[in-house]
Amino acid sequence: MAAVLGLIIGVIVGIFVKPDIPIVLQPYLPIMVVAALDALLGAARSYFERSFSDRVFIISFISNVLTATLLVLLGNQLGVGSQLQTAVIVVLGIRIFSNVSAIRRFIFKG
Amino acid sequence: MVKLSSWTKHSGKSRINDASGSVNDETATGSFPVIRKKPPRLVEGSRMARLLSSLLIAVLCASLGWGYVIQLNNSTSIYETMSEEELTRLIGETSTQAQSLQQRKTELSNQLNMLQEAANKQQEAQRIAKQNEQTSGLLSGRLPATGKGVVITIDRGSRQRVDASTMFQLLEELRNAGVEVMELNDVRIVTSTYIDDTKNGLICDGKNISAPYTLKAIGDPQNLQNAVTIAGGVGSRLKVKFGSEVTVTPDDNIEISKTRQPSQYKYAKTIE
């Protein structure tokens, strides 16, 4: 409930408030969004599994975003930024797919 | 025996458990996730803490949505987020492309210049050819001509007939004065024209002509007139020696319609 409400509020705020993202942060924003999406879908899955814990969700959300960002940052510093970015996106994408398929099973199995 | 009964009892209990479980649970494959009972909350937080965590979740999800929309509306150039190497590579590629395009442009414009030059040359050649055709056509008598000039009439001499050499002298005088096209009694005068005496007149290019002679000449009227009427010239010779009347009439619109076929050259060839 809080999550859906928060999403709606965030989208509305994003539509009306358009701040200038600092250039330093710009390459990491898409990664952050994807990581957060993964965390959100993981939370949804655990919600369907009845093992949802708000504490776990908060920690996993933050750690997901931070890990993804730091990984890309590290890659940028090592000169393999774009490759590592691709790797992170791929891994998160796989996770999102598996989460979604798990959720689908719950929904269609009743 | 006791032991055995306890075994059977245990197994029977487990079978009962299985049976009760198989009513609404199909976990046999093991690949499907198990719906568990909601576990008891590990740490029973206070009402305040639960509200706080809900709020935190809302804030995090809001930041997700916000970030998504921001990234969606992010219309700044992609070059800003590119690394130095990527930019270097991109600049290299772009400059190579620009160079090759420049080269292609140079090639094409060279080709265009060559074609234009060729076209101009051809046009020039065509123009010269046309001019030559006109000039030689007038010169050889192939084309009719019109223009200003003079009409010279010479009537029958009262003392004697006008002879061919005097007539030829008249033509030569006119040629010296810059005559361009001439016609003598319906005979076009060209470079190969001859005049000879006959018993009762003259023969010009195989055609008998007799007095009065009419000579149409296209050229500068003043010069032609002077050439004939100059003191001691051919005009006075005609008057004095043959006693014939010579009139020179300038005309702004003389038409010479007589033409003749140019002779085919048999031996002479042009030098390329």
From TrEMBL, chain A:
The keyword Flavoprotein does not apply. InterPro entries: DUF1290 (IPR009709). Pfam families: DUF1290. It is a multi-pass membrane protein. The keyword Transcription regulation does not apply. The chain crosses the membrane at residues 27-44, 56-75, 87-107. Keywords: Cell membrane, Membrane, Transmembrane, Transmembrane helix. One of its GO terms (cellular component) is plasma membrane. Its main location: membrane. This is Putative small basic protein. It is found in: Cell membrane. Belongs to the sbp family. It comes from Bifidobacterium bohemicum DSM 22767.
UniProtKB/TrEMBL annotation, chain B:
Gene3D superfamilies: Protein of unknown function DUF881. GO terms for cellular component: plasma membrane. Residues 17-30 have a biased composition (Polar residues). Pfam families: DUF881. InterPro entries: DUF881 (IPR010273). The chain crosses the membrane at residues 51-69. PANTHER family: UPF0749 PROTEIN RV1825, UPF0749 PROTEIN YLXX. This is Division initiation protein. It comes from Bifidobacterium bohemicum DSM 22767.
